Amino acid sequence: MDYKDQINLSKLPKHIAIVMDGNGRWAKEKGKLRVFGHKNGILSVKDVIEGATEIGIEYVTLYAFSTENWNRPKLEVAAIMEILISTIHKETQTLIDNNVRLNVIGNINALPANCKRELNEAIDKTAHNYRLTLTLALSYSARWDITQAAKTIAQKVQAGELQLDEIDENLFSKHLNTHNLPNPELLIRTSGEHRVSNYLLWEIAYTELYFTNKLWPDFRRHDLFEAIYNFQKRERRFGLTSEQLT
Ligand code: FPP
Q: Is the overall model pTM greater than 0.90, yes or no?
């Protein structure tokens, strides 16, 4: 089935978040090193972003490196950073040509200096693009983000800049790294794992979850279209009854 033709373009999710999982297993299946999986995962990233812009998705957020990923073998961490740096370097012009804005969430200060430099350069060069915002979650975990937001708010209260009764969900959201993104309507995780792994925990309160057995390096735009098609078949009730919705 050609899912692209079946998608209702007037009911697209504005923001799709993705947990790109299964690179290591994909490589292992082929008798290769894990890094081979990560390198091939970049082809999926490119195809999915192209597919997303093609149909008019406005925000895509990719879980590229979690806080917990720092605990992987040193060589793998170094290889992932290398892939990240070279991909950003090579693809910045493609982002510009396609009117894609690059954005980052996470503890960017924990990244190697050359990686930070490359990212900041690409962020600056694409800052005025508006067709799609591509956010990379790097050295990111939702609990880290929630904790840093709580700390900042506490400091403001302590300094007398903020009153306790001014704190509500809206104010809290504004202190998260995701403050400039709408909440995702759809979260996709590849590789058959049914977990959210410390990803966007605050933001996915009402997000539809979609799991596929495909490993990330096998995931392509038609898989994205299938996920969107599946999403559009669901009834989102936000705590209401079906009758209230109609
Ligand atoms: C999970 O597969 C994938 C990752 C940890 C992401 C790797 C990140 C990159 C290659 C950099 C991304 C760069 C850009 C520009 C988006 P896994 O290793 O957990 O696979 P497994 O579960 O099969 O072991």
A: yes
